Amino acid sequence: MKPANLLLEQTGTTIFTLMSALAVQHGALNLGQGFPDTEGPADIVEQAALALGDHRNQYPPLTGTPELKSAVAAANKRFYGLDIDPVSGVCVTSGATEALTACLIALLNPGDEAILIEPLYDTYLPVVKLLGAIPKLVRLEPPSWELPRAELAAAFSPRTKLLLLNSPMNPTGKVFTPDELSFIAGLLETHDSYAICDEVYEHLVFAGARHIPLMALPGMFDRCLRIGSAGKTFSLTGWKVGYVSGPARLIGLVAKAHQNLTFTTAPNLQRAVAYGLGKEDAYFSTLAAELQARRDLLRQGLEAIGFKTLATDGSYFITADFSGLGFDGDDVAFCRVITEQAGVTAIPVSAFYAGPAPRQFVRFAFCKQPALLEQAIARLKGWIASPPLTRGA
To answer: How many C-beta neighbours within 10 Å does residue 240 have?
Structure first.
């Protein structure tokens, strides 16, 4: 038989699938997967249910229902002062992962270079490669995750088509600073390049940090595509409703890619998300405050039992260094052992790198109920206090 797609054939099962299956097998508390363990707002769910009965269940418009497109444009103006045309400047997608793929398809030709920042979400690299583009990787280093300006500048070339920017960032929890964004904007202008901005955690930013879309900086509007996620904003990750905002010229290309991917998204969910985006400011501030409290609970618990934790200014995740626990093994082995022996699952941070990576860091998700986080800490504490032989790799 002739080979199928070689890149996909050579791609193994993701670490997320493996660790989740292992968690189920051992009855572990799964702090690996990044989704809340509570339902989203009841009024938004009710709106989705009501919309099912309004006799508008056939194909909605390709780029999204008018209600949701208008709500996305209004949210861009409300939160960031961005003027987005609700008709030509928004494309609704079946989740942010599809939005990301559609944006990459819209901008990349075979042979183009795309700059990606490590550690990175695991979808970025395969899609760039599948499109025949050339990834150029720039690495942030723990524990500060500061932008390496010289290395980033060196990654640009005449063949650079785009930079993919994730802020707030998964897995690091980094929120890029105004100064870092300004530096990135300067490079994009100098090299006449675009930016795809994965901003799905835009409303999950904690005290002391502020999310600023790159698109909002001078000269950046026509160079940026900005991705948002109803799943993250409303704790309804299974709905898979995403949206891309940007200049009409680029959104038109995203829509053509979207047409050949999923074509459209459930209309009742779109109308419910439109309702959600119009919720009062208190909803968005409370969402961030509640998550910050859970971050602090997990951070304090981990540090009390011997982990070192890295700063987390946004997202669902905290990175922890287990090197002080006396464990003889790398991060993959550590995650496997704590799942099997402690009954707590995390994700090895090396999974977010394309090449050699630090091996003493794991990612815990804190978007869980406080009682579950406390139980996870108690399980880890008991495991650490157990005889050393049961803690080996």
So the answer is: 19
